[in-house]
TrEMBL record, chain A:
It comes from Carnegiea gigantea. GO terms for biological process: regulation of DNA-templated transcription. This is NAC domain-containing protein. InterPro entries: NAC-dom, NAC_dom_sf. It comes from the Eukaryota. Residues 15-179 form the NAC domain. Keywords: DNA-binding, Nucleus, Transcription, Transcription regulation. GO terms for molecular function: DNA binding.
Automatic annotation (TrEMBL), chain B:
InterPro entries: NAC-dom (IPR003441), NAC_dom_sf (IPR036093). GO terms for molecular function: DNA binding. Residues 9-160 form the NAC domain. Keywords: DNA-binding, Nucleus, Transcription, Transcription regulation. It comes from Carnegiea gigantea. This is NAC domain-containing protein. It comes from the Eukaryota. GO terms for biological process: regulation of DNA-templated transcription; system development. The lineage of its organism: Eukaryota, Viridiplantae, Streptophyta, Embryophyta, Tracheophyta. The keyword Transcription regulation applies.
Amino acid sequence: MRENMNISVNGQSRVPPGFRFHPTEEELLQYYLRKKVANRKIDLDVIFEVDLNRLEPWDIQERCKIGSTPQNEWYFFSHKDKKYPTGTRTNRATVAGFWKATGRDKVIYSDGKRVGMRKTLVFYKGRAPHGLKSDWIMHEYRLDDTTHSNNDTHVANAMNGEINITQEEGWVVCRIFKKKNLPKSLGSFINTSSSTLTSMLGSPSDHNHDHDHHDQGALEQIFQSMGGKPQKNNMIINTISSFHVDKFMQLPSLESPTIPTEDDVALMPRSGPDPNPVYNLDPGLTDWTALDRFVATHLSGQDTTEIMGYRSIFSPSSSTVHHHHDEIIQLPPLRSPPSTSSENKVYQSCGTLDSSHGGIGNEIIDLWSFTRSSSSSPSLGVDPLCHVSNVGL
Amino acid sequence: MADDNGDNLPPGFRFYPTDEELVVHFLHRKSDLLPFHPDVIPDLDVLPYNPWELQGKAMSEGSKWYYYSRRMQSRVTDSGYWKPMGMDEPIISSSSKKVVGLKRYFVFHIGEPPSGAWTGWIMHEYRLPDSGSSSRSGSKKKGHPKLDYEKWVICKVYKQQNDDDDGDDGTQLSCLDEVFLSMDDLDEISLPS
């Protein structure tokens, strides 16, 4: 055994350039945590003890520096002794927030044998249950209780998600890091170079550049262009999109149909003439197809029909309006004359539109002809994607 | 891992140099013929290897291979060629904020240029900034791009990971963890009934 070394001698790091502490889970458990538990010396003092209740993640970052090299992961030992007064759960609250476990514990194997467990925790700022989720993640590794030799019980417990109380105390070794908010498949590439990514995906066309900004606010734009502030349904969509906005935004821009020109676009339902009648239906349609797919896969039943109520506005033929009578009623108020009954609103606003932009009536028909073919079909209410095939191709 | 790499470092230490370290600690000193330690990156400037032949020849760590090569070293092997991708990326010193090196990306293609087939093998080529001398002036302007065969570069080669098999032990969340995380959100937001 080598003698005990300090990580830095006279301020000089003992870690040679280019080397980082990046242990495997097996090394963490089998080497470092086992030595810690057995109170044995560790050659190089790289993992410090940390009182999790006293240090915020960003303080741990300072405390657990190894040498002078830049790090994006930090390691420490922690002793789990504090419990919440109400039960057996470990108290991992700090002054600024708390660590909350997520998911299920993962079994760590070494040479095919189970040696420990890993718990994943997320740091929330504030106090439960109103904490604000941060990007700080902790992996907490604990050794299996070695006094239990019955491996089968351990496995069974793990399978059932049960927690063996005896394993929930004592020393654990932890790694904290900041979650990367990048699509996983592309993450490595974006990390290294965005220019590479661009070149790998092929040079983007002007079209994509033009509509880049629409990816962000596609939903908002659609709602805005509808001239109303939908309350309930808007909330549903916003709620969902806030979960899935990452995935949603990863969708490549679809080639949008060239049918609607700017004049056509001006034909969005409005209650009066607009001095600046450009509504960008074109990119809206592109994102709309994506949205429909998204909606179809994530919603069902009631929610789907509610959202379809919006879509029917985009195919404002009379048959559609009547066909979707029920759904239209659920629409939030549009900016239309207040005297009309709810079921006439869409109709009315379209009519107003017709008169205010009467000079381009031919294009109205052109624009709507492709939707009518599908919207008048009785199957529309059943198949939420039916217009995708018409529009998207 | 060879013994002289880690200088008796305990378990868990690995060669994961930052771009800056590669350029400053390894490339600059190599070019200036200064002694440096640890001397872990080998010279492979004699003939171009296919990426899968690097094992055992280049310094390997964590499915990445490091070696010195020459700037004008042929990038064509008996099986394919390294095709440059994108643009040079400057390596900025974290202390002086000056450009200390440049990084360029290559993707290995199997077959004859230009019709080779894309592979998942990626190379980062680190070189010193183009300037009249090999001084570390850090000027951003390209002077006269000297086609200097003698100039050393460092190559880092790796195979792009598949989505599912990349490490769960690193500083990333697994797909499953990401799902659990987003489900945590669901707990806290009640959908309107």
